[in-house]
Q: What sequence folds into this?
């Protein structure tokens, strides 16, 4: 207890006690609440004042249930299953550094009660997960959001990992920012590079030294192919984030690979039968599909376009040569 508090704070403190210590399995009696008020805040009030304050909280819209065994906060911003889902998402997000992941999980746990946190064992394993070492992620997000709001370009260093497992600068970028996109567990900035005159998808966890430029951003709808804005259905068909012109790509697919195909390419892929063979078709980046087809060469065979089929063949031949 930091010190005695005035009784007029009792209403707020009773709400905090209910949030921290109560649920349907752990109702609090008025005596319990009086004890917590005294122990944690140094507030001493009459028992009937607890009942009056709980009635006021109900009138304010708080869902507080009462029964013979006591009262408890019946609904919260997130229920326990939703919190578990959010926490697992933070843990599994490789673009969020370990320390920031732990801080986020701690704050998520704080929206529930003390009993919830006791069941979250994996909060202690966050340092064991594969995470980015770039601590600028959330700063990057805030700068990009503001630049989009102000209609300004952003400037930053774009980096790659070296064999020392550290980020190394590879290029200085000036980009018109349009959207932040989460794709295949990676966070990307979608923007336009006026120098090279093409759309780029840059990983946020690879960006350092970002700042808002004083240059005015080029409106997205003035760029060829984006007159109607961003087509998110096309982005969902990209197995990897490349910005070359999408093409209709068809390929033979083995039945056992359909799960992986849908996982990677989403609902944009279509299937037909050609005799006893399954044919898949999708509009996607040729570069991305080349790399993807190499990865899944055991159950995918590109049919068209010919240049994509030849690129896959070249990749496979070079790979095979290394193992001879």
A:
């Amino acid at each position: 207890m930091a010190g005695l508090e005035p009784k007029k704070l009792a209403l707020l403190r009773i709400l905090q006690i209910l949030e921290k210590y109560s649920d349907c399995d752990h109702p609090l009696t008025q005596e319990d609440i009086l004890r917590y008020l005294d122990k944690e805040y140094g507030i001493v009030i009459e028992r009937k004042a607890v009942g009056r304050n709980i009635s006021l909280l109900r009138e304010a819209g708080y869902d507080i249930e009462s029964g013979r065994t006591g009262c408890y906060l019946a609904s919260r911003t997130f229920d326990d299953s939703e919190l578990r889902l959010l926490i697992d998402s933070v843990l599994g997000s490789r673009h969020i550094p370990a320390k920031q992941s732990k801080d986020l999980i701690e704050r998520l746990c704080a929206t529930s009660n003390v009993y919830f946190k006791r069941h979250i064992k994996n909060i202690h394993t966050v340092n064991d997960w594969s995470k980015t070492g770039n601590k600028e992620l959330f700063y990057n997000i805030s700068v990009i959001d503001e630049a989009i709001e102000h209609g300004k370009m952003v400037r930053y260093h774009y980096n790659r990992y070296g064999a020392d497992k550290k980020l190394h600068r590879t290029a200085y970028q000036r980009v018109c920012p349009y959207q932040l996109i989460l794709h295949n567990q990676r966070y990307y900035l979608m923007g336009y590079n006026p120098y090279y005159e093409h759309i780029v998808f840059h990983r946020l966890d690879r960006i350092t030294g970002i700042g808002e430029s004083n240059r005015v951003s080029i409106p997205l709808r003035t760029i060829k192919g984006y007159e109607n804005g961003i087509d998110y259905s096309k982005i969902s068909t990209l197995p990897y984030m490349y910005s070359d012109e999408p093409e209709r790509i068809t390929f033979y697919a083995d039945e056992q690979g359909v799960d992986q195909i849908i996982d990677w390419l989403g609902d944009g892929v279509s299937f037909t039968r050609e005799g006893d063979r399954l044919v898949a078709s999708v509009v996607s980046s040729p570069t991305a599909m080349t790399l993807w087809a190499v990865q899944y060469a055991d159950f995918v065979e590109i049919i068209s376009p010919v240049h994509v089929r030849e690129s896959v063949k070249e990749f496979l031949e070079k790979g095979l040569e290394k193992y001879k």
Summary: The longest strand covers residues 167-183.
